[in-house]
Predict the structure.
Amino acid sequence: MSGTPRLGLGAKLKALLTGESRSAKGLTPDSWDDLEATLLGADFGPDVTDELIGTMRQRVGQLGAIDDDDFLRLLREILEEQLSRFDSTLRLSDRPAVILVVGVNGVGKTTTIGKVAKFISHAGRSVVIGAADTFRAAAVDQVATWASRAGVDIVRPQQDGQDPSSVAYQTVEFALRNETDVVIIDTAGRLHTKGGLMDELTKIRRVIEKQAPISEVLLVLDATTGQNGVRQAEAFLEHAGVTGLVLTKLDGSAKGGFVLAVQERTGIPIKLIGTGEGIDDLQGFSPVAFAAGLVA
Amino acid sequence: MATFGELSTRLTDALKNLRTKGKLSAADVDGTVREIRRALLDADVSLDVVKEFTAVVRERALSDDVNKALNPAQQVVQIVNDELVTILGGAGRRLEFAKKPPTVIMLAGLQGAGKTTLAGKLAKWLVKEKHTPLLVACDLQRPNAVTQLEVVAESAGAAIFAPEPGNGKGDPVKVAKDSIKYATDKQHDVVIIDTAGRLGVDAEMMKQAADIRKATNPDEVLFVIDAMIGQDAVATAQAFQQGVDFTGVVLSKLDGDARGGAALSVVSATGRPIIFASTGETLDDFEPFYPDRMASRILDLGDILTLIEQAQQAFDAEESARVQSKLASETFTLDDFLEQMQQIKKMGSLKGIMGMLPGANKMRDQLDNFDEREITRTEAIIRSMTPGERQNTKLLNGSRRLRIAKGSGTTVTDVNQLVTRFEQAAKMMKTVAKGGMPNMPGMPQMGHGGGSKGKKPQGKKASKSGNPAKRAAENAALAAGVKPGAAGSGGSGFGLGAGGKSTPSAEEMENLKKMLGGGL
């Protein structure tokens, strides 16, 4: 919303429902328009916004009289319900547990890997990172810096521009040899529209699975993304078999409302949340906390 | 560059109903406006901009001068186009250079927007334009951003100023300041400052960016923004406008699908023009941004100008002159065919090019099914032929075709298809080279240049012999007997799908050519 300070959804709704409590009938068409504007502004997208407003109207109708706190609580409940429909636990019981990290360019894959590595190694598990982003300039050095910050092993490509699949293979091989618990494979950012690059992901998957099953394929999504996030998820699901979402850059002003649509459309649960550039800025996904953030 | 594809499709859909109706009613306009609103929201255009946009379109669509017009639907398209151009920033703006070098360009934006990659693209482009850019590594935050810039600078053929190792060490403001002096000493005429990604809400980092700006007094501050960004685009753009007061916008990752709707928002929220579009992963995927062209592309009117420009860069004039003369002298061979295909590859994605052609939007689904590896397969087939075979496809008997199929990992059917396609293409090209109109299947025959030439009485006189070699010989003999004035180049006998009619062979064309002599 141009010109206005970035208020939370709740603050905005409070502003629109100022003070006195209203009956359901007291909610004017304008209030609903404002709710729509707020939801759209949080990147929920037109479809999900329509659905949410429909559900809200129904619930408000059932409840009859409603004040602004109820209105907010109701919205939060609806969001929580929708967000918690899927299981958001990371499955890392295989040994080694292989995590493949994928996503479009610049969403924060490498940073996320650094954080996940730190998190897992702090839980007492050994970790090795496979630097399979052999495309972007200095990507290997970047992930190596994160590996040393997290105090975990790294498998680097032996030469420039090496086939990422072979780096992934060597990383799993390393883990099997050294009995490392968790393998995290970094991949180059790729736009989901590039067929050849998406095929490359399928190949990486195939090559890894020759040695060990893949426990998790995490798709990293940037919270500032708009409705394109849904298409990204669909494409990556098709080519890489994504099992979980990581939502990054939630420390900014973007709300990341589009993930609701992603979850609904693809059935892939959100598993992790990134909230900054520090190595500890990572949280497990909690529907309650996330819904509260959306309706702060 | 299937830019704005979805928006384009949706608006086309929204306006389809309008196109089929003779007259505009208020209900028509409202329905259309609703579609446009939803399409724009789906494309991540900010709600405020959408409201403004649809209000203006509605008002203008309902005004009298539209209803009086001959074709109201076209007028609505025009209105939507006008408004899109207005929002996208009116006439395009170019990069401004300082009167006294060095010109200082500072890049700013969110994390992962593509600043470092853009720095490389900009540098490479400037090198091509005979400038001597200096890349300055002021992203001392992100691990190994400095290394990345070094690699990028090397492949762009530009110099780099990176006195600090980065990874959290060093003062970017000091680096930026020192770089200006360095550039003056070393006589670099453009300085490109790559800064760390920062969030609009991070006050400390925004202050640092403002300090870099103060220290270097840049001629251009470019705000790099991801074309995929959602509603947050406006808040972020405004934060950067307040923080560093950027002078222009660069839209990155435009090679993805759809989106870019945020571009409309950013421009309308800040009033700053989009100067460049970044469209791919290599350093050459970079072009000036043309608001008017982009707007007509949204409306599926095609982006012919960009297409022509790209084509011109890929095809050097000499090469095309050579092909032209080849065509005219009718020695167009599979080798030339191969070269042309490589030129097309150089031009960029075939899908991208097709996407820029008017009306191609309807073909988008087909395009998505089109496999660009087809070109690679064709290349493989041609490369499996001997030089002799490439010169003369007549040599290709069954056994040779089998050998070629095996050599290229294809089937004989594939080889047959290619040869047929090539022969048809060669014929069409000859016609074009002679100034005639190519005869396309399913299209009415058009007249060719030089009205004095009569139509060739091909259909009546041509031999109906089943043996191609015999037929060619007979036709040649027949043609030799025809007076020069009576022979033409664009006759209906060249029709691609000309069923039972015999088509002229290469030899025959050669003869015709000789007869026509200098008359071409």
User: Anything to note?
Assistant: Chain A touches chain B through 47 residues (CB under 8 Å). Residues 9-83 of chain A form a domain with the Four Helix Bundle (Hemerythrin (Met), subunit A) fold (CATH 1.20.120). The longest helix of chain A spans residues 45-63. Residues 1-6, 19-25 of chain A have pLDDT under 50 and may be disordered.
